[in-house]
Amino acid sequence: MSSDASEPAADERLPPETPSKPERRADGRQEPPRPLNEATSRQDVRRYDDRSTGDGLSASDETVASDGTAVSDRDGATGAQQTVDESEVVGRIAEGGPQVGEDLLPDHSFALCLTHDVDRPYKFAQAGFYALRDRDPTQLLDLLPGRRPNWTFDRLLAIEAELGVRSAFYFLDEQRLFGDRPIRDWFDLDAWQLYADRYSLDDPEIVELMERLDRGGWEVGLHGSYESYDDRRRLRAEKRHLESVFGKPVLGGRQHYLNRTLPETWEHHAALGLGYDATVGSSTEIGFDYGDTIGRPFDDEFVAFPLTMMDVAMPNPAENPDAARAACDRILEQAADRGAIATVLWHPRVFNDGDWPGHTELYRYLLERALELGAWVGSPGDLYGELDHPE
Questions:
Q1: Residue in 90, 111, 102, 4 with CA at minimum distance from that of residue 290
Q2: C-alpha distances in angstroms, 175 versus 124, 151, 243?
Q3: How far apart are CA 84 and CA 61, in angstroms?
Q4: Distance in angstroms between the alpha carbons of the first and the last residue of the chain
Q5: Peptide bond into 16 cis (omega under 30)
Q6: pLDDT at residue 89, as a whole number
Q7: Is 50 exceeded by the pLDDT of residue 328?
Q8: Domains observed in the chain
Q9: Which string of b and e fits 187-201 if b means at least 16 CB within 10 Å?
Q10: Average pLDDT score over residue span 302-325
Q11: In angstroms, rounded to a whole number, what is the distance separating the alpha carbons of residues 209 and 199?
C-alpha cells in the first residue's frame, strides 16, 4: 500500500453520520458506548467462560442479534454498535478467498497468524484498582521497585523464537486520563479503565522494544485508539506518530476494543495507506463466525484478516486446562480441514502468570499443536506478502 501522502486532503471519503449511533461529543462526533471494565485480570473474564459451550467454542447465533444486525461486544472489546449486518459484509468480501494448500502456501495445511495488542505493558493504577475492588492488598506489591508483572516481552519472544515463529505487535497511541481527557473523566471509572496506565510511544523503553522486534523479524503495527475507528484525523495522527517513532511505515493493525463500523473503518484504514486490518472478530466467542479466509472489502490490495481466537474468550486454562486445550484442538483441526487463514490474539499482559495463570502454557500449546498439524505460523504482515494481490 502507498503511504498516506497521496490521500485526499479534506477527508473526502469520510462516511456520513449514522443516526442510530448513541451519544455524541460536544464537537458533534460520535461517542462510543462505554464498555464494561477492560479485562486486565482473569477474574474480569469469568463471564466469558460462562458464555462458552462445553468445548470452548462459540455458538454462532450469539454473534448476531435476532433481527440479523451485528451487535457490539459490550462484555469486553467492541465499543461501537454495528450499522450493518456484519456477517453479510464479511461473508461477501471473503467470497473466493484463497485456501491454504490449494491457492496459497502449498506445503501447509492452514495459516495461523499471531498477533499481540500492546495495551498495558505497565501496571500502576491497575494495581490500586484491583487492591480496592478485590480487597486484595497483595496487588499493591506490584508497585514496588523492580516489579513489572505486565512487561512480559522477554517470555513471549522466547517462546516464539524457540519454536521458530514470528508475530505482530500492535502499539497503541491512546489519550491520557490526565492531560488529554476532560476533568469529569477523572471521576469516571470507565474512563480510568480506558485511559489510565497508558504508555507513550516516545518512551525510550517502548522505542527500544520496537527496534528489538524489528531486528528479530517481528512485525510492528498500529493499534488504533478507542475513538479512532470513526475518526480519520485521529487515526492518521496516531499512524504518523507511530511511524515517526518506529522510523518505518507500518503495514496494518487492529482497532482497540475491536471498535469498528463496516465498511467505514476499513475505508479509513485504506485511505491512510494501511494494507490490512485484523479487527473483525469477537472478544467473547472463538471460531469461524467471521470467516476462514481473508476478505478484500474494496476488491483491491487492502485485506481484512478475521479474528478467530482471543485469550479472554478461551476456557480458563487455570481452572480447566483440558477444556482450554480441547478448544485449541477443535479450532486448529477445523482450520486444517478448511485450509483456513486463522488469526489469534494473545495480549502480552496474559503472560503475567500472577494475574493470568495458565495462559502462557496454553499459548505454547497452541503454537506447538498448530505446527504439528502442518500450519504456516507467522504474522499477518508476513502472510500479506505471500498473497497474490489484484493488479
A1: 90
A2: 16, 21, 17
A3: 16
A4: 12
A5: no
A6: 72
A7: yes
A8: 29-384 (3.20.20.370)
A9: eeeebbbbbbbbbeb
A10: 97
A11: 13
Q: Which residue bears the cell 468480501?
A: 93
Alpha helices in the chain (DSSP H): 46-51, 86-93, 125-133, 153-163, 189-195, 204-216, 232-246, 264-271, 321-338, 359-372, 380-384
376-378 and 111-118 as β-strands: parallel, antiparallel, unpaired?
Answer: parallel
Of residues 310, 262, 259, the one with CA closest to residue 86:
262
- The torsion angles phi and psi of 278, rounded to 5 degrees, stand at -125, 35
- pLDDT (0 to 100) of residue 192: 66
The distance from CA 21 to its chain's CA centroid, rounded to whole angstroms, is 23
d(CA 389, CA 329): 31
Which is nearest to 108 in space by CA: 281, 314, 340, 274?
340
Q: What are phi and psi of 169, to 5 degrees?
A: -115, 120
Grid cell, residue 363, equals: 499459548
Residue identified by cell 486454562 is 317
Write out pLDDT tens, residues 123-173: 666 666 666 667 777 765 665 576 677 889 999 999 999 999 999 999 999
Burial (CB count <10 Å: 0-12, 13-18, 19+), residue 37: middle
Helix (H, G, I), strand (E, B) or coil at 205: helix
Cβ neighbourhood burial of 335 (10 Å; 0-12, 13-18, 19+)? buried
pLDDT for 294 beyond 80: yes
Residue of 154, 76, 130 lying closest to 348 (CA atoms): 154
| Consecutive H or E run containing 50 | helix 46-51
Using CA atoms, how far apart are residues 248 and 218, in angstroms rounded to an integer? Answer: 13
The C-alpha cell that represents 368 in the structure block: 506447538
Q: What is the DSSP string of 14-25?
A: PPPP-TTS--B-
C-alpha cell at 99: 485456501
Looking at the chain, the whole-number percentage of residues with pLDDT higher than 70 is 69
* pLDDT tens digits for range 18-76: 323 334 344 443 344 333 324 444 444 433 333 333 333 433 333 322 233 333 332 33
Read off the pLDDT of residues 63-116 as tens digits, 9 standing for 90 and up: 322 233 333 332 333 344 444 567 667 766 777 789 999 899 999 999 999 999
